[in-house]
Amino acid sequence: MSHPTSQDPTGLNSWLEDELRQQYKLDRSSVDPQWKSVFESNGTPNSAPASNGHALTTTAPTSVAKPTATAAELAAGDPQILRGVSAKIAENMAASVSIPLATSQRIISVKVVDENRRLINHHRSLLGRSKVSYTHLIGWAIIRAVKAHPGLNNAFAWNGNGEPLRVVKSAINFGLAVDVEGKGGTRSLVVPNIKNAETLTFAQYKTSFDDLVARARVAKLTPQDFAATSISLTNPGTVGTMASSPRLMNGQGAIVAVGAMDYPAQYRGVSQDAIVALGLGKVMSVTCTYDHRIIQGAESGMFLGKFQALLDGEDNFYEEVFEALKVPYAPVKWAGDQTPAAALAEPSPDVVREAAVIQLIEAYRVRGHLMAGLDPLGSEPEYNAELDPLTYGLTIWDLDRHFYAGSLQHAFGSRKQVTLREMLELLRATYCGKIGAEYMYIQKPEEKIWLQHQMETKTGIWPSSAAEKIRILEDLLRGEEFERFLDRRFIGQKRFSLEGAETAIAILSDLLSRAADTGVEEVVIGMAHRGRLNILANIIDKPLEQIFSEFEYNIDPDSMQGSGDVKYHLGASGTQKSPAGNEITVSLASNPSHLEAVNPVVEGIVRAKQEELGDTAQERFIPVLIHGDAAFAGQGVVAETLNLSQLDGYSTGGTIHFVINNQIGFTTLPENSRSTLYATDIARMVQAPIFHVNGDDPEASIRVLLPPPWSQ
Q1: Higher model confidence: residue 58 or residue 31?
Q2: pTM reported for the whole predicted model
Q3: Helix H segments across 490-597?
């Protein structure tokens, strides 16, 4: 029997080499340079020397018999010669017969891995990140189990004298079987490997895993990707196979196969409600096929035992995964179910669970913002025990059980009973995505209920229309290009740029459109320096030539304000038109250098307009105040304005406060400038609802503009 190529000592991927060799013969430039070098050297094997100085070979000294079909057998059918890929696969399978195999099998519960994967992917979907597959987690568990039982990583070989050897491998080169669709719809299997997998973190492993799969799909794998596989995983469960005992190729000691995840066959006719009530879970068949010459049944059995324990959550398996992926939740753990029949003491488990669900709903409404992904600079939210179902005695078996929806009925079409899983997914999407809400301290029940109906019904993740996305993009481009032009044209000039916060333009543009469509006549804006020129240009429509001329110190001679950064003090008025064609006046109040000093000025302007023009309902004129985070928390005039806002003599019917969180207050970090968690905590004193949003997500930023209160 011929020796396989040095780049793929298992021979498993030799069909791919043969196919690429034919392609190379037709067009040498069409194959990867590494494959080209292999073909130019005729694939000469580089045999590794044994410890005694003899070369190793992975084939047995005897040849494999090739039985010949009789004439009668050939006449009974339609004989077709196997060529190309099919022929190579046939040769590989015939070669594998020479390996004395044995197989260990386990049926394991997948409840824990399934729930943790759901939790990971739900969080990642809220942040717009790629999903984690079952194979990611299963492969990582195999690597961890091999580290605990390294004998599975060894291989069998013969030396030059025909003596059997155990080849002990320190590096775990983890082979991953990838199904590839070829020309004409044919399917083949390639098995590249992740090199030195034992040295990787889960994040590094996932990156390597995804890279191999992506390159396999587009035929970009190199010979090095196949070299020296020590143990591999095949997953026929993806096509519905319940159990598999794959063949083992020369050069590796074991191959693991996992089957489909499903309920045991005897329960397939049982209703879903009965399955949930009984606490039945899906299972998965796992087989370890190993070379019996160097691996014994006990070793394989202990390896599978470790594999199962890891997937059940032992040895901080999921904690490491969650930490690597920056998932702020606690992973679920294996726990036995508690059925009503098992408990005799009062209150019954059903009553306790119902009370726990009510507590959990309340916790998400109050604390959900603490686990939202709000920081564009990458600071990840941390685990909060109050948002963990386990804190309230709820286990993985309760996730598919129905509970009284209570105050969440509006989010589920008035259904009175909803599964815990549905509730958690909705609450996490609403309060733990890229929008965080604080409002449960409001003392008026009708206001809280209105806010819950607005947020929880849409869950914070409804898609924007194509027209909305285009408008947002145009707003962002206008804001960004304005700042870029100033940076290029007026180098060295004192500037208070909006760079990094261009989403503010999209938010204000959308706010004005909504206000115009609900009958508002004018919005009066007050703000400090940062981003002021951008808003004058793109929201107020102040002529650009006038803005640029102010950089050249062409100041109005009648102005009493001097020069310097005076352009950042000036105000202006303009008219905006909504996509529906409704017009609205928008004004930016003049402001001296004292940042928040403009706040009471804007409130006074709006109150005066309301009184002079008969706006007794306080719906036609709206004040909007734009702040920096440090100034909002640190300047007393902000607290004074808020404190007066609810008094009859000062009220304007409500003010929209827009805080741009720069995460630095001129020279001070947030933790050194305030005692509160958020800069906006001061607004809680007037029971104003507060919405935190990740500014790097313009669509989420637009969504926090709930139906305006002046339209209610």
Answers
A1: 31
A2: 0.74
A3: 503-517, 532-538, 544-551
